[in-house]
Amino acid sequence: MEETIQVRQRGTLTLPASLREKYNVRPGDTFRLLDLDGIFVLTRLVPLVPELAREIEQARREAGLSTADLLAALREQRERYYQERYADDRPA
Question: Phi and psi (nearest 5°) for 72?
Answer without folding.
Answer: -65, -45
